[in-house]
Specification:
single chain, 15-stranded mixed beta sheet, 8-stranded mixed beta sheet, 15 helices, 44% strand
């Protein structure tokens, strides 16, 4: 009997062993043959082994195919799972070792579809069909010694025809645990193909859903992501290296309330346009994130620092290179509609945007500016740009920013800007420009005013206050050693050369004050035109009234050097006239290059009437021994009796006593004597004077009703003539 039982036991043991031996192969064949029903895709497995003594499952050469059953979706060389099956009786899955080698995954995106959408649908349907058992005990699992070796990930974005590859990905995770009654954690680290690594530490509490994570990215190169940026920008390259340490803290029940903090650093950043022209770069961009709370629209940056930045900005009459590169000038109407919709959404959002930058700075920045607004290329170089500001808060009543920079490798600019971030109609701007090379602006001065600036340094001081939209800007301009040359044309043809000549003081400097006033509430206001018109009016006034500027060199009333008046009978200059002539001679000496010309005007009819009256006065004196100037009534009575003329035409009575030819001759002689004596006086005082006296055209309208006068005209000598 015992022998029979032993034989049966031996047979059963053999059967069990045989079953155990062939069971993995059976499971493999069943899984492969029914894979589409089991997992939704066709599977291929070369070998499936199970070690019953160590509870180790080994799978070799696994493949999950694409829907076309030709290409691989997921594959790996080796998967080894070291199990603890007895833990299943405690409702817990325990894997002591998880080893995966040669994992290779290919994700394909076309439009908005992915090559795994069918799997999501398959598993979603399966889950929906499983009845919900609310009495099921909490599920637990733990996986230790997780090792991925020589893995690869490929993302084929067919929308932009870009394939992103992550090759030779290897990382280890000591432990991943899940217990709905205990806190779990997972750590991941893997290296990038070009050096650097990704590392994350994740902690999760399944009881309340709270989690926190620390993510480190070291030396991640941006150029593999070039195609993604190219979709939104016309560029040829996108480079840089990212290093970051980010901390996340939130709850899975309200994932949109996750709080983000940490540090992000971007080094050796560079973008080039389609002409391979670098237009944006920085040696280093660093941001210390204090708190980003997306749910509450709150963004707090502890510090933002940009070192050795470079910007190339090109402006033309229609757009600029940044609008072109980033396609901002395309689909303008649709963009405006989107902005309107966004504005409506922002109004309905209870959380008002809050931003804060506790410290902001730009160090050693460079900007290259160019435009072709005049038909020729204008290039300007700004360097050593330093900008700094603290406490930039969206709810601040006032924000201050300080800046200084080098202008075209020579001039300097120092500025301080203060503004109300919620209302730019309250702004203060103070800036100083020194040693600015005026010849840098030749393209503009030639185009708009018909002048080339040969040399000259500008010093500019401005204080501008905008209060409730009202602009009050006081500007002081000092120009030293400026010289100009004429060119043909000029859009406005301003007499800039002569104006500058007049505005120069005894040291050759030009000091101007340019008060600018305006109202930003006026929709027709153009600040650029306002400043230009202020400057244009100043130049116009200077040229229209040169005496007002030149009188400052000799003192006195500007009228004294603008016009010299005489009586009709004068033949020699009076003492007052001589003082005026002396000022002109002094001005000629003090203002080198000044050309002074005087034009003689007189109403000949009134002059002849005055001569006729004087000749009649001589007759009155010879017969009465009285001066006609002090005996007016008696004189007129005498003349009327002498001529028996109508008393209403006393002037005809004067003329009747003297031959008209004699009157005309005396008038001409008086004029010649007066002008000759003036010339003699000028030469006596300064024998080298270049002051000229001319007789005006008798038909000139200014002669009509005019007493004798010399009208002074100021210009420049031929060596500096416009």
């Amino acid at each position: 009997m015992k022998k029979k039982m032993s034989k049966i036991t031996l047979i059963l043991s053999g059967i069990i062993i045989l079953v155990l031996i062939v069971l993995p192969g059976f499971i493999k064949r069943y899984a492969v043959n029914n894979s589409k029903e089991l997992v939704g895709r066709q599977l291929q497995i070369d070998k499936l082994k199970y070690n019953y003594f160590t509870s180790t499952v080994s799978i070799y050469d696994f493949k999950m195919l694409e829907q076309d059953e030709k290409d691989n979706f997921v594959s790996f060389d080796t998967l080894i799972l070291n199990l603890e099956p007895l833990q299943l009786f405690k409702d817990k899955v325990v894997i002591e070792e998880f080893f995966l080698k040669g994992l290779d995954i290919t994700v394909i995106m076309r439009d908005s579809l992915f090559n795994f959408d069918d799997l999501i649908e398959f598993y979603a349907t399966e889950e929906d069909s499983i009845p919900n058992n609310t009495d099921e005990e909490a599920f637990k699992f733990s996986i230790s010694n997780i090792n991925f070796k020589e893995s690869g990930f490929h993302f084929n974005n067919q929308n932009i025809k870009q394939i992103t590859d992550i090759e030779d990905l290897s990382f280890s995770i000591p432990f991943i645990g899940w217990d709905q009654e205990e806190k779990s954690n997972a750590d991941v680290k893997f290296n990038f193909p070009r050096g650097g690594y990704f590392e994350s530490k994740f902690n999760f509490n399944p009881i309340d859903g709270a989690y926190d994570a620390d993510i480190t990215i070291s030396d991640l190169h941006l150029d593999p992501f070039y195609k993604y940026v190219e979709e939104y920008a016309e560029i040829n390259s996108f480079k840089g290296v990212v290093n970051s340490n980010i901390h996340l803290e939130g709850n899975t029940n309200q994932a949109d309330k996750t709080i983000v903090s940490g540090h992000i650093n971007l080094s050796d950043f560079e973008m080039t346009d389609t002409n391979d022209k670098k237009f944006l770069s920085a040696k280093n961009i660093g941001a210390e994130i204090q708190k980003i709370d997306y749910y509450n629209s709150s963004y707090v940056i502890n510090s933002l620092k940009i070192d050795d930045s470079y910007t190339f900005f090109q402006l033309d009459s229609i757009t600029n290179n940044f609008y072109t590169i980033f396609k901002l000038d395309e689909n303008t109407e649709s963009t405006q509609e989107e902005n309107q919709l966004n504005a409506k959404d922002s109004i309905s959002n209870d959380n008002e945007l809050y931003y804060a930058i506790n410290h902001f700075e730009i160090n050693k920045g460079v900007v290259d500016y160019t435009d072709n607004l005049t038909g020729k290329s204008f290039n300007y170089h700004l360097s050593n740009i330093e900008i700094e500001s603290d406490s930039i808060f969206s709810d601040s009543e006032w924000i201050a920013l300080n800046a200084d920079m080098l202008l075209n490798n020579r001039g300097t600019l120092v500025a301080e800007l203060g503004t109300n971030p919620s209302n730019p109609y309250y702004t203060n701007l103070d800036f100083t420009i020194e040693k600015f090379l005026l010849s840098d602006l030749n393209i503009y001065t030639k185009h708009y005013m018909g002048h080339n600036i040969l040399k000259g340094d500008m010093y500019y001081y401005s204080n501008s206050i905008i209060s409730n939209g009202k602009i009050k800007s006081d500007n002081k301009l000092l120009v030293k050693n400026v010289t100009l040359s004429n060119t043909k044309g000029g859009l406005y043809s301003l007499p800039l050369k002569f104006a500058i000549f007049l505005l120069k003081d005894k040291n050759g400097d030009v000091n101007l004050e340019l008060p600018v006033r305006g109202d930003m509430n006026d929709p027709t206001l153009n600040v650029g035109k306002l400043v230009w018109n202020t400057f244009k009016n100043l130049i116009g006034r200077a040229v229209a009234s040169p005496g007002r500027l030149l009188s400052g060199l000799v003192g006195g009333d500007p009228k004294d050097i603008e016009e010299i008046n005489f009586n009709y009978l004068d033949t020699i200059p009076s003492d007052k006239n001589k003082k005026q002539l002396n000022k002109l001679l002094e001005l000629e000496q003090k203002k080198e290059g000044l050309k002074i010309e005087m034009a003689y005007y007189v109403d000949k009819q009134l002059q002849q009437e005055s001569v006729a009256k004087d000749e009649a006065g001589k007759i009155y004196f010879n017969e009465t021994q009285k001066d006609y100037l002090t005996n007016k009534v008696d004189f007129e009575t005498f003349i009327l009796n002498k001529t028996v003329a109508d008393s209403l035409d006393i002037k005809q009575s004067y003329k009747a006593l003297t031959n008209p030819l004699t009157i005309d001759s005396i008038a001409k002689n008086n004029t010649e004597l007066l002008l000759s004596n003036i010339k003699t006086y000028l030469k006596t005082v300064n024998d080298s004077t270049q002051i000229k006296i001319n007789i005006s055209d008798p038909k000139a309208p200014e002669n009509v009703g005019s007493t004798p006068k010399l009208k002074v005209d100021f210009s420049m000598l031929d060596t500096t003539q416009e």
